[in-house]
Design brief:
Helix 2 links the parallel strand 2 and strand 3. By secondary structure, this protein is of the alpha/beta class. The strands form three sheets. A five-stranded parallel sheet has the order 1-7-6-2-3. Strands 4-5 form a two-stranded antiparallel ribbon. The longest helix has 12 residues. The protein is globular, with a radius of gyration of 14 Å. The mean pLDDT is 96. It has one domain: Rhodanese-like domain (Oxidized Rhodanese, domain 1), CATH 3.40.250.
Length: 143
């Protein structure tokens, strides 16, 4: 099934309406540096002991323990690649209302690193660094 991708402005409208949850799949350090207000953080990848990014083996388990299969989720990451993969994994696991925010937090880039599709932050949408402790991966992973 095809993943619906939406631009950041549409994601903000859905979040402001109060029926969707933004699921930030970036690593915990990336999330701590700034994120969409009210976002929940469940990393798809996390740094391993050597500092390289590795798959989070608990990703699906943690999402399933915190959200119902019909929860309205918007996945997002830094540029859009990880969140698209996360949305696909969630759909395959039976989640029925998942959309992906195109461009992620920072924006899609070309091979030279130039932004080709601005994400949430470059569009001037609100950003927060502090979070409700219950929205952090540390708390979500304990459920």
């Amino acid at each position: 099934m095809m993943i619906k991708r939406i631009p950041p402005e549409e994601a903000k409208q859905l979040l402001d309406a109060g029926e969707h949850v933004y699921l930030d799949v970036r690593s915990t350090p990336e999330f701590a540096a700034g994120h969409v207000p009210g976002a929940r953080n469940v990393p798809l990848l996390e740094p391993d002991a050597s500092g390289r990014m590795a798959p989070n083996p608990r990703f699906l388990e943690v999402v399933e323990k915190n959200f119902s299969k019909d929860a309205r989720l918007i996945t997002g990451c830094m540029k859009g690649g990880r969140s698209l993969k996360a949305a696909d994994l969630l759909q395959q696991a039976g989640f029925t209302n998942v959309v992906d925010m195109r461009g992620g937090f920072g924006g899609e880039t070309d091979e030279a690193g130039r932004v080709t599709f601005p994400g949430w932050a470059p569009r001037g949408l609100p950003v927060e660094r502090d979070s409700d402790p219950a929205h952090l991966y540390e708390a979500l992973s304990k459920k």
